[in-house]
Amino acid sequence: MQLMPKTGKTVAKQVKLKGYNNAQLFTPAINLELGTRYFKEMVDKYNGQFEYALAAYNAGTDRVGDWLGPGPLPRIRKSS
Predict the structure, then answer these.
(1) Cα–Cα distance for residue pair 68/29, rounded to 1 Å
(2) Cα–chain center distance at 80
(3) Closest Cα partner for 73 from 53, 21, 36, 57?
């Protein structure tokens, strides 16, 4: 999972990970725990629309907000 140190620290606080430091982002179990927790936050933020959640996970929520502009979240059409 690709977590920036600031995001890792924030999520570590949310899960009450004691003694967290940025080097732990290179520990697979901790990295997966924090990364999947953060991705779930993105999925929830974007109402289950995984495309937006993936974009926000990789580019940041501010960037996705800029791309989408003001107003309600547009629904992504699923091809059949």
Answers:
(1) 34
(2) 28
(3) 53
Nearest to 40 by CA among 65, 15, 18, 77: 15
Buried b (16+ CB within 10 A) or exposed e, 36-75: eebbebbbeebeebeebbebbbeeebeebeeeeeeeeeee
Residue 73 pLDDT grade (very low, low, confident, very high; cuts 50, 70, 90): confident
Summarize pLDDT for 10-55 with one digit per residue, the tens. 999 999 999 999 999 999 999 999 999 999 999 999 999 999 999 9
Instruction: Give the DSSP per-residue string, 6-53.
Output: HHHHHHHHHTT-TT--GGGGGSHHHHHHHHHHHHHHHHHHTTT-HHHH
Q: Tell me, what DSSP letter sits at residue 22?
A: G
Instruction: Write down the pTM of the prediction.
Output: 0.82
Assign 21 to helix, strand or coil: coil
